[in-house]
Design goal:
alpha+beta; globular; two-stranded antiparallel ribbon; 106 residues; 6 helices; DUF1330 domain-containing protein
Length: 106
């Protein structure tokens, strides 16, 4: 996926997560964009010396991470069933691999 598409998907998620109907179902949300697995030194060596850190980050990003938390199971189910979430998930699946890892209480 190109950096521009990753940025577009990221903006879509952030915009959607700001909607009151989704926010009301979440207790906590964390959304981050990561850098690909290539070692930083290699990326730095192959990138123009004029590129700043932000520019390098946007050029080499490859991972979007969303961490969501709910106060109860019903809110979680409502969030996943919400049309906006379903649309975002479907859109993201067309761009790349989506992995959902439910965290269970120990």
């Amino acid at each position: 996926m190109t950096p521009q598409r990753i940025q577009q998907v990221q903006k879509s998620w952030l915009t959607a997560l700001q909607q009151p109907e989704l926010q009301s179902q979440l207790t906590f949300a964390f959304f981050a964009r990561g850098i690909n697995d290539t070692p930083t030194a290699t990326r730095m060596a192959t990138t123009s010396q004029h590129a700043g850190y932000r520019e390098l980050f946007f050029q080499r990003s490859s991972l979007l991470l969303g961490f969501f938390s709910w106060s109860n199971e019903m809110e979680r189910e409502e969030f996943y069933a919400h049309g906006t979430y379903q649309q975002l998930k479907k859109s993201a699946e067309q761009e790349g691999t989506i992995t959902i890892l439910p965290l269970e209480t120990l």
